[in-house]
Design brief:
Elements lengths: L1 E4 L6 E4 L9 H19 L3 H18 L7 H7 L4 H11 L2 H4 L4 H11 L3 E5 L4 H11 L7 E3 L1 H4 L6 H11 L6 E5 L2 H11 L2 E4 L3 H5 L2 H4 L5
Parallel strand pairs: 2-3, 2-5, 3-4, 5-6
Antiparallel strand pairs: 1-6
Helix pairs in contact: 1-2
The structure holds magnesium ion.
The site of magnesium ion (MG) has 7 residues, from loops.
């Protein structure tokens, strides 16, 4: 875990979902592979050819945009798949119920945090997938706000979903803390926007944020 900045009086916590509120390599891998498989079938290519082409595009993009990473949604846009189609594909293909189970330690953590902070998730997945994921983890009732790919029709890193989450929370941007597992996607832009930022290696680090965010209780 690395804490980049914490506001003086944080009022809202904005969590990334995948790789942050759960750690499950198999499910994460399925989220990358299933849309690539579908795109390969549509384009009459093998999975390996399609995956290679996508990786090449992302590597080229990163070389032209130092320090940044392009989301899978924006990559697919470049391959002729609209954000609306990406939303539909993910709703159809992703299967959190197959991989995830309730996490009592996470529930305990977010329950304590929810007593002090507005709680939101900002994800590049559709809201329905995020809600199903929260339900699998047993914390759906603890995180009332979800901003997904279908909320603003743009992928992180983009200001719109972060601003929207702050607005729905009803708190100024500089009272929010973004918590996520990818610096370029979840942390760099929120810091530029004036939010706090905490980079985590996975859900185990989320269990560990309590002392930093609930200092008065310790
Ligand atoms: Mg993530």
């Amino acid at each position: 875990m690395k804490i980049f900045r914490l506001p003086k009086n944080p009022a809202a916590l904005i969590f990334d979902m995948d790789g942050t509120l759960y750690t499950n390599d198999e499910y994460m891998r399925s989220q990358l592979e299933l849309p690539v498989k579908k795109l390969a079938a549509l384009r009459g290519k093998s999975f390996n050819e399609m995956q290679g082409a996508i990786k090449q595009y992302q590597d080229d993009w990163a070389a032209q945009n130092p320090g940044k990473r392009i989301s899978l949604g924006n990559t697919f846009k470049a391959f002729g798949v609209s954000i609306e189609e990406t939303i539909q594909w993910r709703e159809m293909l992703y299967d959190p119920e197959r991989y995830l189970t309730p996490d009592p330690k996470l529930r305990q953590t977010v329950t304590l945090l929810a007593a002090s902070y507005k709680m939101a998730v900002v994800t590049n997945n559709p809201v329905s997938v995020a809600r199903r994921t929260l339900a699998c983890l047993g914390i759906d009732d603890r995180i009332p706000i979800v901003v997904g790919l279908d909320t603003c029709k743009v992928s992180k890193p983009h200001e719109a979903p972060f601003r929207t989450a702050a607005e729905i929370c009803g708190v100024p941007v500089n009272a929010c803390v973004s918590i996520g597992d990818r610096y370029e996607i979840d942390i760099a832009l929120p810091l530029e926007m004036g939010m706090g930022g905490i980079l985590v290696d996975g859900v185990e680090d989320v269990y560990g944020v309590l002392p930093y965010l609930l200092f008065d209780s310790f």
